[in-house]
Amino acid sequence: MVLSITLPSVPDDWDNDKSQVVLGKLENVEEKNVQPVGESLFGYIRRKKHKRTYSEDLQIESVLKETVEENDNVESEEEPDILFTLDPKDWKEQDHYLVLGISSLRYKATEEQIKKAYRKKVLKHHPDKKASSGNTNDDNFFKCIQKAWEILGDPVRRRQFDSVDPTFDEYVPDKCDAEDFYDEFRVTFDNNARFSNIQPVPSLGDENTPRQEVEEFYRFWYNFDSWRSFEYKDEEEKEGFENRYDKRYYDKKNKAARAKLKKEDNQRITRLVDNASRSDPRLKKFKNDDKLAKEAKRKEKEEARRLAEEEERKKEEAKRLADEKEKEKERELQNQEKKKREQQKKLIKKEKKNVRNLLKDSNYVMGEKEATIDDIDLQITKIERVMDNMSLEDLTDFSKQFEEKIKSNVSEASNYLDELYNAEVEKAKEKEREMASRELKIKEENKKKTKKLPWSVKETATLINAIKLYPGGATNRWEKIAAYVNDHGGEDDEDERTRKKRMRRPEEVIKKAREIQKISSIEIKDAPTQRYDSSVSSISSIPSSGKSSPANTPTSAKAPPLPWTAEQQKLLEGALRQYPAAKYKANPAERWELISKAVGRSKRDVKLRVKELAEMIKRKKK
Amino acid sequence: MSKETCWIGLSLGRDNATLSTTSVTDNVDIIANEDGDRLIPVCVSFGQQDFLIGTQAKNQLVFNSRNTIQQFIDIIGKNYDEIENRDAKLDENEGKPVYNIEIYPPYDEENEEEEVEPEIKQFTPEEISIRYLENLKKSAENFIGKEIEGCVVSVPISKIQNDDTSALKDILHKAGFKYVQAISEPAAAVLAYLDKNGEEDTLCDKNIVIADLGGRSFKSCLVKNSYGIITVLSQEECPIGGKDFDDILINYFKNEFKKKNHIDIDDNKRALTKLRLASEKTKRTLSRTSSTTCSVDSLAEGMDMHCTINKMRFDMLSNKLINECLNTIEDTIDNSNVDFEEIDEVIIIGGASRMPKFQSKVESLFEEYTKIKNDIEPDEAIAYGCAIQAKLLSENIDKPEYKKLLEDNEIKLPHLTQSLGIEDTNGDFIPIVPKNTVLPATRFIEVDNTNTPLYFAFYQGESEVASENKLVSQVVIDDFVIEGGEPKEGEKISIRINLSPENLVINAQNKATKQSTKISIKI
Fold first, then answer.
1. Does residue A189 lie in a domain region?
2. pLDDT score for A68
3. What is the pLDDT of residues B333-351, one digit of tens each?
4. Disulfide-capable partner of B300 in A280, B271, B491, B505 (CB 3.0 to 4.6 Å)?
5. Phi, psi of B23 (to 5 degrees)
């Protein structure tokens, strides 16, 4: 268990430029005997001997202790002599991959491979091993191995080193010819791809790469997301400054240097992509293709427009022609009809003339008698009248008959003419009469309609009931209400005829209902304190406020109920409580009798009143 | 069979020896000898034709007491005059002790009637020890199936401190061990428990008391464990051992027998030996039951002895002895710079420590939070630790820096004798490197200050209030402060502090971002 504590805050008088203050020496350090036993003591001795720190030692020992299967997939590289002359102090200048023997893998090495390579080196070059094999006790190289692992074993520090890997080629090819393009740029792009945060990086491809991929490639590289950073080139390790001022100064300096390098690197990548895009034969081809395609498209469009216009024109022409034809036809038809009519007219005229001639020739069917002007005129009028409304067929028929009759007997012809004339006159008269009688009939009908039976009290009450029974929203409400009123609205002694007369149509019912509502609401408003009485009187006054003579209605015979006084109301209420409905279930009539006695009014009055009250309460609740 | 070699651990007490190894399984195994004994009595017996050791030899104490020898290892390398409690068989030869052993010639049928005179032979304690140890080595090799190259032997801490191990190492070499390391008993016991409980117990700072109630003496020792390195701070010894508890029983039974039968066995050596063996068994039984009967057939003058004793009586009789042990522990702590309250652990070992009364009394001596550790067989704990050390050495013996350890009984290293720590937000003193820690020391803490500069105020002293100690240095680390950043909940910064006599190095790492920084102070 590691102790977890909270530190105090920095004292107020702390000098902000300082990171440490030493106020005294460590005291009470004495030599004491320890027992030469246990792993920890062995570790202590080992650390002292190899001058290792606690954590370094822990790490090396854990590597040594690890029992890994020795399946050699990492080939051992030769160890050039130069390695053994390395000074661990100059670690910044050293190639850590070479030290671990994985210089062929470099940034491609997996974590596993690095670990294995390190383990192998530790086992081979551990100072203990060297000592036992009689080698010199110079463990400089082992320290270099340690440093290499410290850097490559830590993903962050490894990237920092990879960023400034001395073997990395910063070269950016210039613009070049199409035939050299792939050779020139492929290697460079592949080289730089290692820095991408996004993997895998699209490849440059070749002349057959689809256009989409090529464009994707350039889009990727123009937005290149690089992890390359330049902490490794920091001037000074930022550890161990006694003075915070110095530390901040170097921090700032390093930060600026890093940012500058990073900017330069980004510019380098941009230059690379620029150069590549300028030299890429594929891009040129695409551009050309685009141009051609555009041209082709333009032409195509034009052609299409032309065709469309033509089509339109043709269509219009056709339509026009069709219309003309139609008109022609119509005109012809009209002409024909006109001709026909004219012909008929002509024929009629001819026939009329014929008849007139006949009449004239036959001495106006006056027989032997000399025809006077008046006679002639009368005869002509007659014949004109007879002929007036005749169709062609009738006319020819008439002329034939007339001619025959003239030929056989002039007087007969004269009679025939008179007959026809009289018939004609009679017809006209008949028509006139018919018209008059229809008018009369309509008048009668209207009279009948308005002459409906007025609403009886019972009917009105039934209507109110029916309205309650079929509340608003019920389907065919007014039809139902009307039927209800028709069934139940009559007096008990009503005969069949009055019943039929009384029949109400829904429109009437609606009208009546509105009327009732209006009256009752007005009266309630006028006399709110006496609304019991007034509402009753409103109902009782309905018959008198009806339109036509109330004296003829059967209800008018009965006197409207007297208004209820407050005292009576009180009595009624008491009686209702005294004789509850539940008690007289078997015989409700008896109950009403008792109540009416107690109140001092008729049974019917009481019943109506109670009904009324019940409705009032219901309304109030709503 | 290949010429594989191995090492063993050897716990060599005054009365018993225990062998241990890690070569059979990966764990520590106690080696049982041919008799099936894990605890092999330090005892040899010269018979007519044979030479016996261990339990077989101990059984001869009654029948062949004149030629059976115990406690010979104790006196090796000593002059005759230096030896207290001289054995009857011990003689002087030019100032050195020798044992006179009567060796009878082989039985001769022809001279059946003839009185055979035994030949008196003289053996030095060294010679006997070597023969005994050779036997143990052979047993171990039979058990493991490998040749034994080296051994780690435990000796009392006093011998280590007095550099009095060469005689023992010498006879072990002579007995056939190529490499021998002598380690102290408390160190071995601590090692055993560190190994058993793993890293969690090893990588910490603890003050540990080892209470060892052996056969002949009680040894109390205070050690400091600084991340697995063991420093003995003080030790005391008193001559009270299992034998004294046996004596209590012997006296009790003797008196009871006297009361019953009016027979005094004070001068009857044979009877006393019989009674001693029986009493030892009775004592062991009483550790597990509340009452037992000790029976000896024909103890004296043909009379049998049957005597019942209950635990309460035994506890009562042994109370005085136990109190003396407790006084010894108190002395040990008083002689160190550590307080009772600072004791983290008590390890109880030694065969006699099995007595429940002893365990409970030791436990009650310490604070409640002090852990009592007794889960390794008390007889075997030291051998267990020796095996661990033997394994470690066998793996590293080719390296000169470790080979050198065979010669050094102790190593001198710088220790910090006054705690170094930091102040926390409440003004409390939090020791980072506690007193008696070996330098250089690396210690780890975590701080939960988020997005504020880390302020370390290093103090040296023992007061719980930081300001009452001596301010050594102040350090501010502001690398983790992000301007305008919000403090993140649960964010922690791990701090590694490395203290050497010359400087103090602070390594801080933000656990989330892995960003780290280092600051070094010359103090």
1. yes
2. 58
3. 999 999 999 999 999 999 8
4. B271
5. -85, -15
Both tokens of residue B117?
A: 């005179």
What is the domain count for chain A?
Answer: 6
**Residue A481 maps to a domain:** yes
Helical residues (DSSP H) of A73-126, grouped into ranges: 96-99, 111-125
The minimal CB distance from B444 to the residues A2, A26, A49 is found for A2
Q: Which residues of B touch A11 (CB under 8 A)?
A: 455
Q: Are residues B424 and B472 in the same domain?
A: yes
Whether the CB-CB separation of A457 and A540 falls below 8 Å is answered with yes
Q: pLDDT band for position B463 (50/70/90)?
A: very high
The domain tally of chain B equals 3
Do A388 and A476 reside in the same domain of the chain? Answer: no
* Domain containing residue A96: CATH number: 1.10.287.110
**Alpha-helix residue ranges (DSSP H) falling in A51-104:** 54-65, 96-99
Residue B233, Ramachandran bin (φ over 0: left; ψ between -120 and 50: alpha; else beta)? alpha
The answer on pLDDT for A79 being more than 90 is no
- For residues A38 and B184, the answer to whether their CB atoms sit within 8 Å is no
Nearest CA to CA, how far is B372 from chain A (Å)?
20
B180 occurs within a structural domain? no
Do B455 and A20 count as a contact with CB atoms less than 8 A apart? no
Report chain A's mean pLDDT, rounded to a whole number: 78
Helix H, strand E, coil C: the string for A374-394 is HHHHHHHHHHHHHHHCCCHHH
Q: How many of the other CB atoms lie within 10 Å of CB of B438?
A: 23
In a domain? residue B489: yes
A266/A324 same-domain check: no
Alpha helices in A280-372 (DSSP H): 281-361
Domain assignment of residue A421, yes or no: yes
* Domain ranges, residue A51: 40-71
A 213-272 residues inside an 8 A Cβ radius of B: 238-240, 244
- Chain A residues lying within 8 Å of B179, measured CB to CB: none
Concatenated DSSP letters of B341-378: GG--EEEEESGGGG-HHHHHHHHHHS-TTSEEE--S-T
Whether residue B251 is found in the same domain as residue B347: no
Q: Which two tokens mark B352?
A: 């006699």
Reported as a pLDDT band with limits 50, 70 and 90, residue A18 is: confident
Same domain, B336 and B307: no
- Single out the residue in A254, A279, A304 at which a domain terminates: A279
Q: At a CB cut-off of 8 Å and minimum separation 6, what does B111 contact?
A: none
Q: What is the mean pLDDT of residues A161-189?
A: 81
CB contact under 8 A, B438 and A34: yes
**Nearest 5°: phi and psi at B440?**
-70, 145
- Please state, for a pLDDT cut of 70, what percent of chain A lies above it: 85
For residue B521, report the phi and psi dihedrals to the nearest 5 degrees: -125, 135
A593 plus A482 within the same structural domain: no
The verdict on B428 and B508 lying in the same domain is: yes
B405 within some domain: no
Pairing of strands B303-310, B291-300: antiparallel
Residue B293 is part of which domain span?
242-316
- The mean per-residue pLDDT over the stretch A94-122 comes to 82
Under the banding of pLDDT at 50, 70 and 90, the label for residue A531 is very low
- Closest partner CB to B414 (pick from A8, A29, A55): A29
Residues of A in contact with B383 (CB under 8 A): none
Query: Which ipTM did the prediction report?
Result: 0.85
In a domain, A2, yes or no: no
The answer to whether A6 contacts B420, with C-beta atoms less than 8 Å apart, is no
Looking at residue A90, its amino acid is D
What's the pLDDT at A560? 57
Q: Who among A6, A19, A238 is closest to B425 (CB)?
A: A6
Which residue of chain A has the CA closest to B442?
Answer: A54
Percentage of chain A beyond pLDDT 90 is 7
pTM flag (> 0.90): no
Q: What is the mean pLDDT of residues B142-150?
A: 90
